[in-house]
Structures are given as C-alpha cells and as structure tokens.
Amino acid sequence: MEKNILCGTFVDLIPLSIEDAELTFKWRNLERAQFLNKGSTSIDQQRAWIAARPNSETNWIITLKQSGVKVGMLSLININIKSRNAESARFLIGDEEAVKGIPVAAEAMKILYDFAFMHLNLHKVYGQIAATNKSMIKWQKYLGMKEEGLLRQHLMINGELQDAVVMGILSKEYMTSKKKFDVLIGLGAKNGSK
User: Fold this and answer.
1) pLDDT reported for residue 109
2) What percent of the chain is modeled with pLDDT above 90?
3) Per-position DSSP letters for 103-163, written without gaps between them
4) Domain boundaries, the chain
5) Of 13, 16, 50, 137, which cross-links 59 as Cys (Cβ 3.0–4.6 Å)?
6) Which CATH class is domain 6-190?
7) Percentage of residues of the chain with pLDDT beyond 70
8) Alpha carbon of 194 to those of 102, 119, 159, 181, 190: distances in Å?
9) Across residues 98-116, what is the average pLDDT?
C-alpha cells in the first residue's frame, strides 16, 4: 500500500515510521488507550511491530498542520481491494492538551474516509469498538457509522474478555454524513483554531 502524506485543514496524516516507536509506545500505555490492544511491552517491540506492518494496512501519525506536533495515530487495516472494504483501527489521540479547541479527531477521520472511499474506491469501512467504550460508539454513530453486530467476548482488555460492537459506514452513507465532518471542521476554523 502506498505511504503518502494526507493533508487536511488542521491536521496531516503522515505515514507511521520506526522513529515513532517511542512516542506511540508512550501513547498506547496511557489510560485513555485502555480500549486498544496493549501489544508491545517495550519500545524495541514497538519498533519491531512498526517494521512488520503488512501491505494490507496503512498506519498514520496525526500531526498538527501548523506546528508539526504529533498528537495521535490512526490506521486503515485489512484493506481488501477485491471486496472493497477495510477496517478503521488504532485511533488514538495521544496528546489531549495539544488538540484542545481543534477538531483533530473529526478531521483525522474525514481524511481517512476520503482516502478509503475516494482514493482506494472502497465501498465500506468498518471497525470494532469495545462495548464498554460508550463514548466512542456514540461518536462514531454521530459521524455516520451504523451498528452492524456484536462479537461476543471478542477483545481481551485489561485481562478480561469483552464484547466488541461492529460498526460500519458505506461510501454513500459517508457522502451524506460528510456534512457533519465539514461543520465540525468549519467550527474549528470559525473559532480561530490552528
């Protein structure tokens, strides 16, 4: 999969690199990352994990456009060009303080969806969210994802098996909900974010 920088108004998505291992390892160990797979237990393991990413996924670092500060990460994995779908994953804002008042989360998702639907010509983007992560489920529904099902005892989080809510958005649904993204991003511009 090609590794391009994807640009927005407030953020750019830059390809994840081995140099990001220390920062992403730190983010993944924050309390706010409790719903992500813990994965690596050391920075060296994180480096190895980054180096081993397959061509069927694209991983980005969310970077503030104006300052270049790295504030989060986001991935599109299990990209299936034949069936025209992929999974949105590993979404995490690691530096909450740096993004206050900036529509980083909404714009990062919009950039990912634009890439998936307009560049890769996918028909569907789906994802799995821990059933206990109510705020992420609510946010994804607001942005246009639909609840598609439940995978029982599917995710190991903090040593316990938890259900995963499967959510998805079709290309035509995104085109309709894209207005919400534009409004949120526009509010950031109106409020002088940057």
Assistant:
1) 95
2) 66
3) -HHHHHHHHHHHIIIIIS--SEEEEEEETT-HHHHHHHHHTT-EEEEEEEEEEEETTEEEE
4) 6-190
5) 16
6) alpha beta
7) 92
8) 7, 26, 40, 17, 10
9) 94
